[in-house]
Amino acid sequence: MFGYTHAEAVGKHINDLLASASYQEESGRLSRSVIHGERVELDSRRRRKDGSLIDVSTLGAPVEHDGKQLGIYAIYRDITERKKAEEARIRSQEEARMARNIQINLLPKTGPGIPGYDLAGRNIPALNVGGDYFDFIRLDERRVAIGVGDVSGKGLAASLVMANLQATIRSLALFDADPKDCLERANRLLFRSTDARTFVSLFYGILDAERGTLRYANAGQGMPILFQANEKPGHLKLRGIALGVKEDARYEEEDIPIAVGDKILIYTDGISEAMNASMQEFGEGRLQTVVSESRTSTSLGRIEEILADVNAYIHDASRNDDMTVVLLKRLRSSR
Asked: For the whole model, what pTM was predicted?
């Protein structure tokens, strides 16, 4: 391990052979402790014959017989590969933490503050970072764009696609693209820049607070739920193919009215398809019940109730998908 022959090592003090100048004091303390009858274990570095330093695990202990100390021994194990693996793990964790912080900063921290409306969203990745996406893009004083998406896969790779998607959607929003045109342009860009295994489901709508309408298009995202007073929950009707699947995909858009008291819930499948230990899904029915029976007055409060109910449902089961929820409620007439 250290490169010395038997003849080179016999008769030499072990610290003179193995401890470089910067480790002489440490190795001296270890030797004195063992000589005084202590058992010592530590990870450190020792010098090879060629002068290079290697990571070692050192065990020093006295040799005793009938209560008398006859000598001492030291065992060295090369832990270079273990140290490299630990350092790589620490770097990976730090990179994941940095990536998560970047992703958090890319997502809206609060709602857009549209008078007469309560709009909020939350994202919880299955791993440190994820491929779910939501965004609120202020277009002007009366309009805000709402995006909710889900990139295939999860983890760092999905988060990179998500960041690219967000940049694409924001740039298209700046050109005031209609929801239909926005999805078609984003689809072409995604199709040309990713492989066949990558696709994105995306809901994109524009809320016009003055008119009280939501104009939207849907590329494979789960159908948002519409809650209206004195009516059973329904769904927004349009749903096209996911982005990145077909280069020349075409999408429809619809303009729907939003009455005072109406709520629209947009969510990714990590919510409805969350499974408990018995492999049973949370389901859309439970989701509708949480929103319909909630006594919380704010959209963010209802979202927190949804996430709490999902987490309680899955309990100790592993969470295998990112979860994103956006809730829009109309509070009053703008007139």
From this structure: 0.75
